[in-house]
Design brief:
By secondary structure, the chain is of the alpha/beta class. It has helices at about 5-10, 10-15, 20-35, 60-75, 100-115, 125-130, 140-160, 180-185, 200-215, 260-265; strands at about 35-40, 40-45, 50-55, 80, 80-85, 90-95, 135-140, 165-170, 220-225, 240, 245, 245-250, 255, 270-275, 290-300, 305-310, 315. It has one domain: 3-Layer(aba) Sandwich (Rossmann fold), CATH 3.40.50.300.
């Protein structure tokens, strides 16, 4: 059998036919490399596959920023002649704090929609569409979180088969189970001979599962993390079961305790510090508002942004 006949029988020709076309490959690479400007995190262009960590004390409006980013994602670019500037994609919100307020999400979404209508009413069709694009999962411990990550591939594939593309994975908050897992290292778990839960192994499993997920479903990952500010800890670096416990200083010389294992820290591509501002805005017209400082640490940007959180959303204070 000559080479031509071998190709026609499914050899090299079969391999080529089973591969993607050049047109599809260019479209896929272009989508992966395209930059995203995500208000109020628009200072740095982001790409699918980036992992952003937003950390700060509790409370510091970290969840509010996640909600704002989620709304920008589910809103369309344009709807009935009105430009909303959204991503026109779905978002997956993984709630590890178990304190997510869906009424707050609905309130902020309704206000964004009403801003675009001439009569100031909420477009019910657009509202329902955006709510359908908001996917939610809640986990109460690390085991449930790992199970959720392992099942996300099938959930996202099912959504994709129905024409729904998820481009944003939000995790609130990544360190929610840290102290419980740490305590479990010193407890004897005799029930059903379950293995002890070690911080390093859990974090490694989380990072590996997210990496595998991003290979098949490219997404932008944004995770929040609560930290403790203050100077009550030693500046010495410790390693306990592979978990880094450094006390780190921000550019303002504010100390905060880094408790997440190094495998997670090295996985993060962008890091943002969020803290309450000393200069609080004047409350007017019975509208609640708070002022926060948002600072990029990775990559380092010298000029921080001031963020105002109001009842109707999160805004950059220009």
């Amino acid at each position: 059998m000559n080479k031509k006949e071998d190709n026609e029988k499914g050899g090299v020709k079969g391999w080529i036919d089973g591969d993607e076309t050049a047109h599809y490959m260019l479209r896929r690479i272009s989508a992966l490399r395209s930059t995203l400007l995500v208000p109020p995190l628009h200072r740095v262009p982001l790409r699918l596959g980036n992992v952003i960590e937003i950390f700060g004390p509790s409370p510091s409006a970290k969840t509010q920023i996640l909600i704002q980013v989620a709304i920008n994602c589910v809103l369309p670019k344009e709807w009935n002649g009105v430009r909303y500037g959204g991503f026109d994609h779905s978002v997956l919100f993984v709630d590890l704090d178990c304190r997510f307020d869906i009424s707050r999400f609905s309130q902020m979404l309704t206000h964004r929609i009403m801003e675009g209508t001439a009569i100031g009413d909420c477009d019910k069709t657009l509202y329902d569409l955006c709510m359908q694009r908001f996917l939610y999962a809640r986990c109460s411990n690390s085991f449930e979180f790992l199970q959720t990550l392992k099942s996300l591939h099938y959930r996202l594939k099912r959504e994709k088969d129905h024409g729904v593309s998820v481009q944003l994975l939000l995790i609130d908050s990544i360190g929610a189970f840290h102290w419980v897992d740490r305590a479990s290292m010193f407890l004897s778990l005799k029930e059903h001979n379950r293995k002890k839960l070690f911080l390093q192994s859990v974090s490694e499993a989380v990072v590996q599962d997210i990496k595998k997920l991003l290979q098949v479903h490219p997404m932008l990952v944004i995770a929040t993390k609560s930290v403790i500010f203050g100077n009550t800890y030693s500046t010495a670096s410790e390693e306990v079961n592979g978990c880094s416990r450094n006390v780190t200083r921000s550019p303002q010389h504010t100390q905060y305790r880094e408790y997440m294992p190094s495998v997670w820290q090295s996985f993060v591509t962008h890091r943002i510090l969020l803290r309450r501002s000393d200069d609080q805005p004047v409350i007017s017209n019975s509208e609640n508002s708070s002022l926060y400082v948002l600072e990029w640490l990775l990559p380092r940007i010298g000029l921080p942004d001031k963020i105002i959180v109001k009842d109707n959303g999160v805004f950059v204070n220009s």
